[in-house]
Amino acid sequence: MPAKLDDLLPAITKAGSAGLKKGDIDKKFGGKAKERAAELRDKLSALVRGGAIRGPFKSGRSVYYFGPGHGPSIETASNAIVTLIASSGVKLLSKPGLEKKVTGMNKKFFPDGLKHAVASQAIVELTCGSSKYFLHRDVAADYFGFEATSQEPRPRDGTPATAATLTLEDLLPAYRRLRAEQGGFSAVKIFDLMKASGQTRENLHRLLIDETRAGRVTIHPTTTVDLPREEIDAGIRLAGFPEPFVTVVVKNEP
Question: In three state form, how does the secondary structure of 30-55 look?
Fold first, then answer.
C-alpha cells in the first residue's frame, strides 16, 4: 500500500541535499493504480508551484526533487565553475570549454553561475576578440603579482597617483579624451592612455588587470603586426596568448 501523500513533503525535506529520485517517489507514494499516479503527479506539481519543493532536476537518467534550500542553484553552479577554473591552474578556459565541463544538475544554472563567479571576483574574465577566457583569482594573483586594492584615500594635493592609490576614476578623463579624439571608438590604446595619464607602465598594467578582474574594463590583443614597437611594448602580456593586449575598453561608458 502506498504511503500517504501528506508524507511526501516531509520525506523530500528530510532528504536534504541528496534529494529524492522521482523513481523512489513513485515506488513509495505512487502505487499501481492510475488514479493514484495522477494524484501523485498533481501533488508534486502543486508543491513545486507553491515553492515548498524544488524540481524536477535531471541528472543522467534520473530526476530529483529537493526541499527548500537544497539542490542545484546559481550558487552551486558558481562553486562548480570556480572549482573547475582553479583546477586548470594557469591554463585559460574558454567559455564554451568551461560550459562543456559543467554537467549534471548545475548545467541549467551555468549562465547565471558564471556571472555570479565573475561578479564575486572569484574568477578573472579575459576578452580576446569575441571570445572570453577565465582564470582563478588566486592563480592570477600568484602568477601576475596582483596586489590588494588599497583602501587609503587618494591624495588631493595634485600629487600623481601611485600604484597604491591609482583608481579607474583617475584614468577616465584621459580615456574619454582619447576616445573623443578617435571619433568615439571605445578601444583606446594602452600606450596612448599611459602617455595621456602620466602613469608608468607598471602602475597602469596593475590597475587595468585589477579592473579586468572586477569586470569593469576589458583588454584586447593586437589584431595587426604593424603596430609601432613602443605600442607593443606598452601592452599587457598574458600566459597563453602569443600577442600582447594593447587596447582597453571601459564598460558602461556612455
Answer: HCCCHHHHHHHHHHHHHHHHCCCCEE
- Does the pTM of the predicted model rise above 0.90? no
Pairs from 23-26 (Cβ < 8 Å, separation ≥ 24):
23/62, 23/63, 25/65
| Cα angle for residues 113, 125, 88 (degrees, 5° grid) | 80
The 10s digit of each residue's pLDDT in 176-188 is: 999 888 888 888 9
pLDDT band at 136 (very low <50, low <70, confident <90, very high): confident
- CA atoms of 50 and 220, how far apart (whole Å): 47
| Lookup: cell for 223 | 589584431
Q: Which residue in the block uniquely carries the three cell numbers 520525506?
A: 11
The answer to whether 156 touches 197, Cβ cutoff 8 Å, is no
Q: Which helix (H) or strand (E) holds 140?
A: helix 137-144
